[in-house]
Design brief:
Blueprint: H1 2-14, E1 17-26, E2 37-41, E3 44-49, E4 56-63, E5 68-72, E6 77-82, E7 88-89, E8 95-98, E9 104-112
Parallel strand pairs: 1-9
Antiparallel strand pairs: 1-4, 2-3, 2-5, 5-8, 6-9, 7-8
Length: 113
Amino acid sequence: MLFLLLVQCKEDDASIFRAYVEGKVTYSDAKFLEDPIHLVKDKKIIAETFPKESGSFVLAGPYDKGIYKLQLKNSKIRSFSTDTQGCKISSDSLSIEIPEGVTYIIFNDITLR
């Protein structure tokens, strides 16, 4: 009986995906380092981290489907570069929208205003 429960849990774990985002932010105001960077899906935070002094960061959180965002709390994004197609800056410039199905992305540079 215990074996069946373990097998069932293992099958459930196999259906859970992770969104993995890494990158580097170019900033001029050190205040940027005080605020967290989030991955947000359906207005819920799925991952949080603070950038290193170099501006680099890594985030990973649960993902199933749909668009999700790399969100900055108080810093507006001027531009970004990545090899992943379909990403765009949100209308308030506080986040980058990541298209459905993308579970791994590297931002070569995110430049703040």
